[in-house]
Amino acid sequence: MALAGVRVIELAGLAPAPFCGMILSDFGARVIRVDRTKVAMTVDTQARGKQSVALNLKSPKGVAVLKRLCLQSDVVLEPYRKGVMEKMGLGPEDLIKENPRLIYARLTGYGQSGSYAKAAGHDINYLAMSGLLSMLGRSSEKPYAPLNLVADFAGGGLMCAFGIVLALLERSRSGQGQIIDASMVEGAAYVGSFMWKSRSIGLWNRPRGENLLDSGAPFYDTYRTSDGKYVAVGAIEPQFYQQLIQGLGLDDTDLPSQMSVTDWPQLRQTFTQVFATKTQAEWGQIFDGTDACVTPVLSQDEVLSHSHNQARGSFLKDSQGEISPRPAPVLSRSPAEPCGSRDPFIGEHTRPVLKEYGFDQAQIEQLLSAGIVECNEAKARL
Ligand SMILES: C[C@H](CCC[C@@H](C)[C@H]1CC[C@H]2[C@@H]3[C@H](O)C[C@@H]4C[C@H](O)CC[C@]4(C)[C@H]3C[C@H](O)[C@]12C)C(=O)SCCNC(=O)CCNC(=O)[C@H](O)C(C)(C)COP(=O)(O)OP(=O)(O)OC[C@H]1O[C@@H](n2cnc3c(N)ncnc32)[C@H](O)[C@@H]1OP(=O)(O)O
Fold this sequence. Notes:
- This protein has about 375 residues and is of the alpha/beta class.
- The protein has 2 domains: about 5-190 and about 325-380, Crotonobetainyl-coa:carnitine coa-transferase, domain 1 (Rossmann fold); about 220-225 and about 230-295, formyl-coa transferase, domain 3, CATH 3.30.1540.10.
- It is about 35% helix and about 15% strand.
- It has helices at about 15-25, 60-70, 85, 90-100, 125-130, 150-175, 185-190, 195, 240-245, 265-275, 280-285, 305-310, 350-355, 360-370, 375-380; strands spanning about 5-10, 30-35, 50-55, 75-80, 105-110, 180-185, 220-225, 230-235, 295, 315, 325, 375.
- The protein has a 7-stranded mixed sheet with strand order 6-5-4-1-2-3-12, with helices on both faces. A 3-stranded antiparallel sheet has the order 7-8-9, with helices on one face.
- Helix 5 (about 125-130) packs across helix 7.
- The two termini are about 30 Å apart.
- Its EC number is 5.1.99.4.
C-alpha cells in the first residue's frame, strides 16, 4: 500500500483528526491512537485499522512516554487547541529538534495564529468563517450547514491528510520533517475555491438559493416521487436538459426557455407535478441509460445494493456487518486495503506498542501499576 512503513501517532480527537488518521491507515500507514485513561468508551467511530494506547497525559511520566512514541514515528497528528501541546513540552519545535524527520500535523479550526486561534468551535463555526455557509441554503431561508461535511471532513481531515502526504513526499527528497498548520476555515475555503473563482462569470450574482447550482435552477434540484422517495436532477447542459424534458414527457415548445431565470419558479412547479406522478423506481426505468442526469437519491442503507455501486464494490460491509464507503480514490498498483476487523478497544495495544517502541517489561509494569498507562487486553479477548 502507498503509505506502508509510515508510523503515525494520532492524539484522540472528535471527528476531523480521526478521519485523517483513518485515511492514512486505509492507505497502509500504521496509526497508533493515543487515548485517555479511565475512559470506558471511545468516541472515535473512524478507527478502522488503528491501534490504541491509553496514556495519562496529566502526568509528567505519561508525557515522557508520548514523547518517546513521537520521536520514533514519522507523523504526529494533534487536534488540540493551540498551546496544549506546548504546555506539555511537546510542541513541534521541541520534538523536531530531536527528530528532524518528524512531520507534525496540527489540525485545528482557526489555525495556529490570529485572534481566534485559541477559541473553541465546531464545523458550523469554521464553515461560517470560511465564507461558504453564507452561500448554502434555500431561497429566503437562513444559511444551512450540510451536516458537518465541509469543514470537519473535506476542509479538515482530508486536507490535513493531503498535507501529511505532501510533507512525506517532500521529506523523501530533503530528509526533513515540517509542521503542518491545517486550519479547517482555510481548508474549507480552499475546497470552495470554485465559488470565488467563478464569481467573475456571474454564477453567484443572485441571492442565496436562486442561482444555477444552489437549488435556484429547477433542472438542478431534487424532486419527490409518488412513493415518498426523491430523485436528483442535474441536467445543466442544453443537450442533457432536452433528454430530461423528453423523459418527463413534456413538450419543449410549451415550456419557457431553460435559462430564463424569471420563469424558473413556474418550471419548478411543472417538474414537481410531473415527478410526483411516478415512483423513484419508475423514473429509474425511464432515465437509466440516458444522459438526462437523473439519479435516485439513495439512503445510506440502499447504496450497497444499487447495481452500479455493487459492480464497483463502492461500499463495504465489515466483520460487524457495518456498511461504509470503500477508500477512495482507487490506485491501480497499490490500492487501499481497509482493515475488515472491529475497531480497537481503548488501550487494547498499549503493551505491544510500548514493547515495540523500546520499553522493557519492567518499565511497562511500572507504568501500568502507577496508572500512567492502561492496558485492556483482557477486555479485548472477551
Ligand atoms: C461537529 C463536530 C463534533 C462532532 C463530535 C460528535 C460526534 C461527538 C461530540 C460529543 C460526543 C458525545 C459525548 O462525548 C457524550 C457521549 C460519550 C460516549 O462515550 C459516546 C456517546 C456520546 C453521546 C458522544 C457521541 C459523539 O461522539 C459526540 C456527539 C466538530 O466540529 S469536531 C471539530 C472540533 N474542533 C476541533 O477539533 C478544532 C481543534 N480543537 C479544539 O479547538 C478543541 O480541542 C475543542 C474541540 C474546542 C475542545 O476543547 P477542549 O477544551 O475540550 O480541549 P483542548 O483545549 O483541545 O485541550 C485538550 C485537553 O485534553 C487533555 N488531554 C488530551 N489527551 C489526554 C490524555 N490522553 N490524558 C489526559 N489528558 C489529555 C489535554 O492535556 C488538554 O488539557 P488542558 O485543557 O488541561 O490543557
